[in-house]
Amino acid sequence: MEIPDDYEMLFTHGGGHGQSATLPLNLCHEQTNVAIYIVNGTWSERGRGLVNDC
Fold this sequence. Notes:
This protein is mostly helical.
């Protein structure tokens, strides 16, 4: 990979659970932010508990 010296790279694990947490953590910075979360399958059902703060 040709990554410039002024960039950093972070490798993380988590799979589907990590991805389910990423969206609300990045988009809902304030307690007043509101998100609509649609549960339509296994992964969204598992991730629903992660969005309680959004």
